[in-house]
């Protein structure tokens, strides 16, 4: 039996196009009795099950009735915040001071960082997430440690050192712009597209309130030197933040100009939240190619507001949008739970998001935001073989619901997103290898 070849059978679902722009049914690719064959980490066949396509020395794993879809892509999350998820009672700015910054300071300790990174990667896999764009801390070793863990599990991971030089405890701040940039440059050289890993670097100015103009300008300059890395920040999450930011950068015509003025708005920039961006600012995102990471559980938990997805995805000037957990502002690492909350945020806005669009955002949409749609987020042959197997019978409630639905794939996906969560993940495959399998006995095991 060849180790480098994997074959799985089940209901294959993926996207070829953006269902917000073309009709949902034109965008989806669905194979009710599908076969996926992976070789050396890549998909070599995806389509209707055909016994003659399976190499004679390869055993097919049959996930009967299960949904097989690209591994979820979390377009914004903080691995350094797994220890303070679910911290009570504050909104963004006080929450950062009271809970986030003290927790991130603990990452000056390597052992603490290693435990956090190990837990984080395993939890991603348990939730069917195979790629994430990850905030770390200001300490360069916290980036090394995460990239080492991602390499251990073979995951495609994007991350970077946090850049911040004001408005936080001094022990967490960069000592100077020059030092922060030289550490970032070293990390890019050490990790970005390093052979034998799937790691991608992202330059990470934290957000306007924590960065001087000099820091933002230096980040923009560094990006010109290394245009294939990503850029990642937070913007317009909370109304107090926007108010403070407008005061701190009075030279800017709009809040988003803080980034535009330093040439940070281009494809490859991923802006977390964007809840309070105005329509002209969304136009700017469209024109520049900057993407937005929609973080519904976080925006609800921190009382930040309701992201207007319909305005962002207006077909005449669509913005690239991905879905994100934003743990520890977010309250779950499950992208199914995140879809559930995204649906409710849309419903409050008179804009319920259908299941195909929810799954698109969590897979190809996020992959596009990370400029990785040629590699991940799809089951098309040639893509990297990262996928998740979802079980419509994971719980008694899901079993009941799946039986009473109308039998369409749209209905099944909607039931999985709204009534499923971590429990619904049967298995997670990374580069063609099964890296997580749910145990049958209610306990959890990992391969
Ligand atoms: N804005 C700046 N830093 C953070 C953070 O750590 N989490 C969230 N949700 N927003 C931020
Ligand atoms: Zn965040």
TrEMBL record:
<dbReference type="GO" id="GO:0008892">
    <property type="term" value="F:guanine deaminase activity"/>
</dbReference>
<protein>
    <recommendedName>
        <fullName>Guanine deaminase</fullName>
        <ecNumber>3.5.4.3</ecNumber>
    </recommendedName>
</protein>
<comment type="pathway">
    <text>Purine metabolism; guanine degradation; xanthine from guanine: step 1/1.</text>
</comment>
<feature type="domain" description="Amidohydrolase-related">
    <location>
        <begin position="67"/>
        <end position="433"/>
    </location>
</feature>
<keyword id="KW-0862">Zinc</keyword>
<comment type="similarity">
    <text>Belongs to the metallo-dependent hydrolases superfamily. ATZ/TRZ family.</text>
</comment>
<keyword id="KW-0479">Metal-binding</keyword>
<keyword id="KW-0378">Hydrolase</keyword>
């Amino acid at each position: 039996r060849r180790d480098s070849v994997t074959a799985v059978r089940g209901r294959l679902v993926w996207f070829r196009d953006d269902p917000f722009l073309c009709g949902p049914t034109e965008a989806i690719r669905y194979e009710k009795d599908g076969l996926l064959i992976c070789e050396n980490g890549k998909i070599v066949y995806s389509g209707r099950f055909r016994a003659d396509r399976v190499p004679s020395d390869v055993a097919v794993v049959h996930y009967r009735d299960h949904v097989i879809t690209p591994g979820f892509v979390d377009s914004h999350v903080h691995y350094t915040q797994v220890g303070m998820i679910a911290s009570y009672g504050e909104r963004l700015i006080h929450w950062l001071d009271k809970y986030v910054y003290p927790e991130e300071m603990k990452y000056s300790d390597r052992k603490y960082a290693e435990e956090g990174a190990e837990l984080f990667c395993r939890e991603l896999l348990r939730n069917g997430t195979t790629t994430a764009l990850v905030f770390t801390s200001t300490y360069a070793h916290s980036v090394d440690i995460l990239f080492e863990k991602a390499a251990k599990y073979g995951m495609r991971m994007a991350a970077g050192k946090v850049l911040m030089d004001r408005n936080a405890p001094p022990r967490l701040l960069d000592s100077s712009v020059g030092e922060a940039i030289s550490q970032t440059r070293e990390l890019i050289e050490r990790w970005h597209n390093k052979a034998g890993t799937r790691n991608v670097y992202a330059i990470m100015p934290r957000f306007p309130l924590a960065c001087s103009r000099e820091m933002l300008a230096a980040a923009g300059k560094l990006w010109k030197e290394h245009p294939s890395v990503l850029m990642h920040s937070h913007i317009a999450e909370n109304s107090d933040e926007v108010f403070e930011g407008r005061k701190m950068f009075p030279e800017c015509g709009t809040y988003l100009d803080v980034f535009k003025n330093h040439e940070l708005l281009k494809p490859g920039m991923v802006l977390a939240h964007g809840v309070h961006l105005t329509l002209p600012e969304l136009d700017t995102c469209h024109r520049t190619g900057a993407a937005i990471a929609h973080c519904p559980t976080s925006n609800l938990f921190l009382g930040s507001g309701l992201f207007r997805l319909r305005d962002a995805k207006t077909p005449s000037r669509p913005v690239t949008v991905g879905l994100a957990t934003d743990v520890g502002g977010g309250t779950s690492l499950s992208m199914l739970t995140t879809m559930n909350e995204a649906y409710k945020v849309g419903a409050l806005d008179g804009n319920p998001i259908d299941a195909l669009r929810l799954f698109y955002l969590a897979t190809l949409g996020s992959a596009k935001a990370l400029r990785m749609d040629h590699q991940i987020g799809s089951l098309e042959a040639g893509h990297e073989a990262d996928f998740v197997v979802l079980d419509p019978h994971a719980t008694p409630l899901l079993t009941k619901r799946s039986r009473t639905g109308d039998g369409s794939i749209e209905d099944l996906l909607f039931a999985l997103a709204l009534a499923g969560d971590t429990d619904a993940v049967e298995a997670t495959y990374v580069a063609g290898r099964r890296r997580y399998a749910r145990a049958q006995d209610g306990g959890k095991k990992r391969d």
